[in-house]
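Before going further, learn to read the protein records used in this course. The integers have meaning only within a learned vocabulary of local backbone shapes. To see the layout at work, look at the sequence and tokens printed below.
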Amino acid sequence: MDTIFQALSDKSRRKILEILKDKDMTVGEIGKRFDFTAATLSHHLDILKRANLVITERKGQFIEYSLNTSVFEEVTKIVISFFQKK
């Protein structure tokens, strides 16, 4: 769970997740929306992937990124449990 919250702590990674909310995208499509280098984007995507927040699927010569909604559901349940009275 720590890796998830650590991944979410960065504004750029949250923006990547926000972009992927609309549709699955390749690295090139995601990169068009940012000013940072390909290496920086790759680093952010790697962190999101290691946190299991995004999943990848090879489509021909491209790798497509999409949100891993099951992890978001799990995080939501945990956060909601903090506010429930016992």
In short: Residues 69-83 form the longest helix (15 residues). The longest strand covers residues 54-59. The chain has a mean pLDDT of 93.
